[in-house]
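This protein record is not my work; I was only asked to verify it. Where you disagree with what is written, explain briefly why. This is what I was given:
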Amino acid sequence: IIRNRVISSIEKATGVSVEDPWRDPNAPHWFVAELAGLVERIFFTIVVATGLTGVAPAMIAWIGIKGIVHWQVFKEDLGNQKIAFSFIGVLGTMVSLLVAIACGVYLKNLP
């Protein structure tokens, strides 16, 4: 959901329509991508809320891992759009992690 909003925002800002293969709800990878995003938000929300150390390096490593995966997936499939899609994936992950941080901080500060 967050990823689609980031793509829509980029399309509105640039006026260029982006053909995104991940948007097809009939494709099996769509479910996996949404599930991974949900799990990462829940995981990092819990980690932030419990106050464990090493959260920032773990988040940076996760962004790096997903960036490499996106680059490999789109490298062969989309030609010239590969860079845009790999960066959109990284931006989507960063927004997702910001949501997790905000939720974790909120839960940590509950009375």
